[in-house]
Amino acid sequence: MNSEGAPAPRYALYYAPRPGEGLAVTASQWLGRDPETGQARALRPVPGVAMERLIEITAEPRLYGFHGTLKAPIALADDATERDFLDAVGRFAAGGRTFAVPGLELAEIWGFLALVPAVRCSELQDLADCCVVEFDEFRRPADETELARRRGAGLTPRQDELLVRWGYPYVLEQWRFHLTLTTRLPDEVERSTMAALLRQRFGGFTDRPLPVNDLCVFRQPGPGRPFVVLARFRLGGGRRVSAEAWRAA
């Protein structure tokens, strides 16, 4: 809650493909929402999958928008403003540089399907690590309810240590970059079916470099509300590029 008692927005640092890029278009078609504009779009029917089930399968990644997490969502500390946060992200991005992940592949992570790096990318790991540490001063500390919720998933001692220190258990050496495409799919047959479909749907984006050109700030205005792109900062570019600017370009 903010000082007026309203739910506080949350902010996250994500990788997201640029608007108009093939991966961004295909992902928004698959998930049924474009996080750049916030606009929903009709899901494309999938043979053998009921539309109601397809909506369920894509519901969670649709809420967050197609992305790869660099710093998980946070509520801002009481003495920090949105402008403070954006200014700090802009300065940080200006000192960075673009790079490319050598290639992607489809993988299962904790029961859901996602695109992940085919090989370790040290530049990507370094960027995520720096985002976690550099912007921790803006994070409102997790309360006991949030800590209990995270621990309910079953954490290792190291993950619990990271949760207490950084507000999220899957950071630093516990972090794994992933572009989520489904919710958790406990049924092995269904998961296999969806994996075959997604390998076909996203086959044009695997086994090729993934350019990482921007650091994106996503914003969630309140609980249960969809995340949207608030701003993009070109790595090494020295200036903020708003979502509106990308749409107008």
Q: Order of SSEs, N→C?
A: EHHEHEEEHHHEHEEEEH
Q: What is the general shape? A: globular
**What distance separates the N and C termini?**
36 Å
User: Which regions contain 5 or more consecutive residues with pLDDT less than 50?
Assistant: 240-249
Task: Tell me the layout of helices and strands.
Layout: E1 10-15, H1 22-31, H2 51-64, E2 68-75, H3 82-94, E3 99-101, E4 104-109, E5 112-117, H4 122-134, H5 144-151, H6 157-166, E6 179-180, H7 188-201, E7 210-212, E8 214-220, E9 228-234, E10 240-242, H8 243-248
Antiparallel strand pairs: 1-2, 1-8, 3-7, 4-5, 5-6, 8-9, 9-10
Q: What does this protein look like?
A:
The structure is a single chain. The chain has 249 residues and is an alpha+beta fold. The protein has 8 helices and 10 strands. The protein has helices spanning 22-31, 51-64, 82-94, 122-134, 144-151, 157-166, 188-201, 243-248, and strands at 10-15, 68-75, 99-101, 104-109, 112-117, 179-180, 210-212, 214-220, 228-234, 240-242. Residues 240-249 have low confidence and may be disordered.
